Amino acid sequence: MSDITQFIAHGAERITPRILKNLLHRLPMLKLEFTQIKDPNYPHLVDQLEFLSDALEDSLEEAYIDLPIVAVAAIAFAIIYAHNVSDLIPDHIHPLGHADDSAVVRGVLTLYEKDLRAYALFIGANWDKISTKP
User: Fold this and answer.
1) What is the pTM assigned to this prediction?
2) What's the longest Cα–Cα distance across the chain?
3) pLDDT tens digits for 8-51?
4) S-S: 91 plus which of 16, 58, 97, 121, CB 3.0-4.6 Å?
5) CB–CB of 52/79 below 8 Å?
6) What burial class does residue 103 get, using C-beta atoms within 10 Å of its C-beta: 0-12 exposed, 13-18 middle, 19+ buried?
7) What is the DSSP track for 10-54?
8) Angle in degrees, CA 70, 6, 39, rounded to 5
9) pLDDT confidence band for 123 (50 / 70 / 90)
């Protein structure tokens, strides 16, 4: 198991129903916040975060019920992690500020590729565009 996979698994283990409920209410604000990320080193990060936010929202609102609970928890962890500006590499440190955010997001996309690809198909999204390397 790679370090990033272990990091995601450890973070996902700490996601509770209360955290998911609170996150669901904050998702509109977080989606707006993510659109403000302007980092040419990680041009796909905004689209990936939007996709994961939509997947989480649809799962929690039961509009899409085929994501495994562990994937939902990992998605929630990735969204919370990306929101935290003082994470492993603070976002204001250029050019690396979003490297850790991108690694966590891409890790979730990779770990749950089969399930998230199915979700992309369900909503009519282009999986290849979403999963493009940073």
Assistant:
1) 0.92
2) 39
3) 999 999 999 999 999 999 999 999 999 998 888 889 999 999 99
4) 97
5) yes
6) buried
7) HHHHT--HHHHHHHHHHHHHHHHHHHT---TTSTTHHHHHHHHHH
8) 90
9) very high
